[in-house]
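Problem: given the chain below (260 residues), write out its structure.
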Amino acid sequence: FGREEVLASPPYAETCSSCSADCGECYDPRLGTAILSPTEVEAGSNQRFYVNYTVDSPITSGGAVKIYFASPFFHFNCLIQNSNPSGCGYVDVSSSNPSVQLGVKTVWAGGPEWGTRLAETIITVNSNTLNKGDKIYFVYGANNQKAYAQEIANNAEVTVLVSLGEGQLFQEIQNSPVLKVSSSSSYKLISAINPDTKILKLAVIDIYGNLVDNYEGQASIYLIDENNQETPLNNIQIISGRAVFQLPSIYSGYFIIKSV
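Solution.
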């Protein structure tokens, strides 16, 4: 495959056809289907991602398939790439049709100031035609170093766009697969007090700041007075990573969470 890496702004403007005035609703059921594996991962985890795309309407020479992943913020040494087969974030692409020659280009776009980063792979049909039923096999993190999932725990669409031929606009397939990114293991207990209502709120987060919503536990709240004497106030249950406790409206000293 041809290999090229570029840095560019997201090509949002070119991804909508005239099928709808709203670019966000511009899908075409004739553009094939895509299956993602795995479908659920932990935030920031080291993974190998597979996308199998099946052609519906034929893709002729000059046509292409684009596949987008949300790229992690904290692994700058593991951006999507197809120039170093032994490096992290390496992309491997193949086809079920041996007569079709594919070109592969990887693009990293965005940055923290945008709130997201997009890892894009453009797979171009350089010769012959991908016919109905043909498949493209895409692997992100194809070697032992694999790749990293995004750190934000959320559902992340792996968007698949298709151009059916030279000069044709890209349109999104009808159902791009969705990757569920869940929080990693509990890392820290954070707290906040409303100074007006004296309500204490607790949350258990992972190393990336995501709420660990499967955490169940207990916190012990103590009042420390001016003589450094501890007075237990209550044990509160942490349910689904959260807890709320009404502190005394009048007190002298400060509060600590002694144990969880």
